[in-house]
Amino acid sequence: MVDPIPGHTPHTRVGVDVGGTFTDAVVVRGGHAWTAKVPTTPQDQGEGVISAVEAALAHAGIAPADVDSVAHGMTVGTNALLERRGARACLVTTAGIEDVLELRRQDRASLYRLDVDHPPPLVHANHVVGVVERLTPTGVETPLTDDAVRDAVSAVCALAPDAVAIGLLFSYRDPSHERTLAEAIRTALPGVPVCTSSDVLPEIREYERIATTVLDAYLTPILGDYLSRLAARATTAGLPEPTIMQSSGGVMGLSDAAQHAAHTVLSGPAGGLVGAAAVARVHGAPLALAFDMGGTSCDVALIENGEPVRAHGRHVAGHPVHLPMLDIETVSAGGGSIAWADAGGALRVGPRSAGAIPGPAAYGRGGNQPTVTDANVALGRVHGTLGDAHGIVLDVDAARAAVGALAGTLALTTDACARGIIAVAVQEMVRALRVVSVERGVDPRDGVLVAFGGAGPMHACDVADELGMRHIVCPASAGVLAALGMVVAGERRDHVRTVLVDSGDTDSLRAAAGELLEAARAVIPDGHVDMHADCRYAGQSHALTVEWHPDAAPGALAAAFHTAHARASGGAMPDRAVEVVSLRVAVTTDGPRMSWEPHPAAGAQAGPCTIPMSGSTCWVADGWNALVHDDGTIALDRP
């Protein structure tokens, strides 16, 4: 699975991913892998994490003391955001813009539905403190006085917050006021996390910058508590301190992650995409779609030339997270998604999930509501023991009873209702896949669908048919590919700075790039460096990101932007001046190389049929042919 280094004692690496239903662990040593699946422990994900690691190590016959590294992806921050159970935070901002979180961008949540609202801000209006000070693009307009600092600290202390966010106007140009306030608040409230926008996101656009900083403060105490307990559990179990997967697809130290939770909101899905990109590279697929269907949700993404597509901000649970991250689209369609009938008698699936407890009815743990998994069990597409998930024997009668109850409400047969549940879930997942492909100007019919997750291979043929795709790869490690992605991910740090200069001003660009590069090298001295620039035509509101290097010839940056603009918008304006909004530097280290040597086919099967996999099940639909390799990888093609 992961290549050992010739002549070296093989390292033992562990990856562990927390899903909505199961927690997956994979142990890799000397090119071999051992896996384990245990039920997720929602009350404290760390319990399931250690249990999964210990189960995988027992399977491998490896002692915890022999483990060299543990990489972990989790959903702690995401769940806290979705359930709005983050810390009691307050915001300190420039007097006069205290309502920045309420005003947002003054856009509607839905253009045509007046009954749809944005989610309420993570900080209540009563917990926003205005400070008398003001910076402008050219310097200080209103100085930050000692009296203003004392007033702000007094107001913050009166609120007794669990965390403090500081976001002042134009602090991306001059962070001095934020730093002064942060030092004073930390002195007055020792142990309370203080997050400054100049540290979290030194970038233009005050709403996104401040909202991201507020989100960081809102989640950091929750994630910090979780990670401290996890570190203690790891020590007790004799394991090394885990590293944490970031939303950007690289790992970072546990203590760094605990200080800035906003970097981990897509931690779990990022591991799956890193693993899927490695699979795409191994199979030589220039275009691939990652299709990760788990128990609670489905995560999809675009992979081009073996690299996952990246974004520099998106909305999670309706809140902007304007940080570097993998471009992942998530929908509430997983194996545990509950099917129901709405008031108009239409069949719906999700967003509610049966979760790990009690789980689908077929798991025999007390669940009685029909789920996508129950629909598959009712149709006979999956049966027997659920992979290696600790011997869960699927209860066909319970699954059919749950689906049958809904079928009665809809005046359908049990089988027809089960097929309908699957069809509705598939349409939701296809919609997400079109967002990351068709809406990006990419034809999915030319690509390969990399299907993984506990339920991905089960629905891959149906999804591919809807997209017109003819090639599917279900890797042998499909059920635990997200955990394996944690193992092969390298370390990553991202740095950004807003510059707002003409693309022809190479001296200013090179000076700013040099400062960013110096900061990046201070964290990862020997890493690979990638540099990009956010560019726009002068007068435009939004920018496109293009690759750039300080040694590039004059005019190369503008030319790259013209090309990117033509691809994104269908045309370019080469006579217009190009403005560089921000520069971005990413420093990465290589993780262990994933390499599956070509394995001979162990057999071929034509659909419809079911093929068991480790930690998953592959459903081969009618009209599809499956080539099963002796390592467990399944390649599906439609003639």
Q: In words, what does this structure look like?
A:
- The protein is an alpha+beta fold.
- It has five domains: 12-81 and 227-267, Nucleotidyltransferase, domain 5 (2-Layer Sandwich), CATH 3.30.420.40; 89-223, Rossmann fold; 271-334 and 426-487 and 598-637, Nucleotidyltransferase, domain 5; 337-424, no CATH class; 492-588, Dna Ligase, domain 1, CATH 3.30.1490.
- Strand 11 and strand 12 (251-252) form a beta hairpin.
- Helix 11 packs across helix 12.
- It starts with 11 loop residues before the first strand and ends with a strand.
What radius of gyration results from the CA coordinates? 25 Å
- Helical fraction: 25-40%
**Strand percentage:** 25-35%
CATH superfamily of the largest domain: ATPase, nucleotide binding domain
Tell me the overall shape: globular
* DSSP summary, beta strand count: 33
User: Main beta sheet: strand number and arrangement?
Assistant: 9 strands, mixed
The end-to-end span amounts to 30 Å
Poorly predicted regions are none
Number of helices: 16
List strands and helices in order, with pairings.
Layout: E1 12-18, E2 22-29, E3 32-39, H1 45-60, E4 69-73, H2 76-82, E5 89-94, H3 100-103, E6 128-131, E7 134-136, E8 139-142, H4 146-159, E9 163-167, H5 176-188, E10 194-196, H6 197-200, H7 206-236, E11 243-245, E12 251-252, H8 254-259, H9 267-282, E13 287-293, E14 298-304, E15 307-308, E16 310-311, E17 314-316, E18 319-321, E19 325-326, E20 328-331, E21 337-341, E22 347-353, H10 372-378, H11 396-410, H12 414-436, E23 448-452, H13 456-467, E24 471-474, H14 481-488, E25 492-502, H15 506-523, E26 528-537, E27 544-547, H16 556-569, E28 578-588, E29 601-606, E30 609-613, E31 616-620, E32 625-629, E33 634-637
Helix pairs in contact: 1-7, 2-7, 4-5, 9-14, 10-11, 10-12, 11-12, 12-13
